Amino acid sequence: MATAPQWVSSATANVSAKLFRGGLADLRPTPRALVDKGRTRSVYRFTPRGGGDPVLLVPPLAAPALCFDLRRGCSLAGHLVGRGRSVYLVDYGQVSFADRNLGLEHWVDDVLPQAIAAASRDAGGRPVHVVAWCLGGIMSLLVAADRQDLPIASLTTVAAPIDMSAIPLVAPIKPLTDIADSWLFTPAYRLLGGAPRALVKRAFQISAIDKVITKPYAVLRNLDDADYLAQLEAVDRFTDNMAAYPGRTFGQIYHRFFRANDLAHGELDLGGRRIALRQVAVPTLVIAGDSDTIAPHRAVRRVVDILDRSPEVEFHTCPGGHLGVLAGRAARTTTWRHIDQFLDRHNPL
Q1: 3-state secondary structure of 268
Q2: Would you say 160 and 296 are in contact if contact means Cβ atoms under 8 Å apart?
């Protein structure tokens, strides 16, 4: 424990850095190069290029792709590059009102298959190991189940909820949505063209409202901890860069995921066809956060019982909330270690 003089000295240095040097977090992105581009799709290769099969990082919709490159020291992309892997990222960019008619089919049928193919092509035709967070994990599961012709070697999902009935935030409001759907919720997102970025940002903050309320106290209590304060700065930047949901996609998520809870049964009607998650036939790593209110343990673990055709399904619960389990300070020695071990087995360098 720091002595009082040490605490005052560290706290003073941290406040000075915040006020006069722009902050404590090193927010420089991991170097990368564009290798493929299409509508709502930019595929980057992080540099330097490493060995082994390519690893493709897949973010969710509405959340910025910097979730995988939050800051120096808490960047899964930087970590994997540092271990000598070839790492790629798909970035959807900002969604506008003009994209309101894009449905989940756009990402499942076009964006992710094209990104996987681009990573494989750029890496010399090698199979791709997909690492995805939140809705990115759900979409990646749907792609792996529907497109077994794609060069997918393995799949890792982090904080990807399958059983929406297990989410505490959903249960209390579901009766209200059932009642008000036809005259409030559906007309609202159709009129707005989706879920505006400001609303997405507020929803993310509400999911961790206890941390928002106690943040001033936490800052004061940890004023001497530069790494803690740097993490707060990086998370604030992440939250400020939330994007909008396209209207049709938001409607599908709302009706099929939350109201009907189709994914809990392992199937989804998409674009006139039925996609069964049990068709996933690649090794799969599933990780949940122990304090995640958006994707709690039971909501995430449900997929383990569904993937009965996968040759290996490994499940772990790691410290952290929804973002923290992927990019928190504890993730460096927990979540990332499990990802490393999984990739080492299925993608040795």
Answers
A1: strand
A2: no
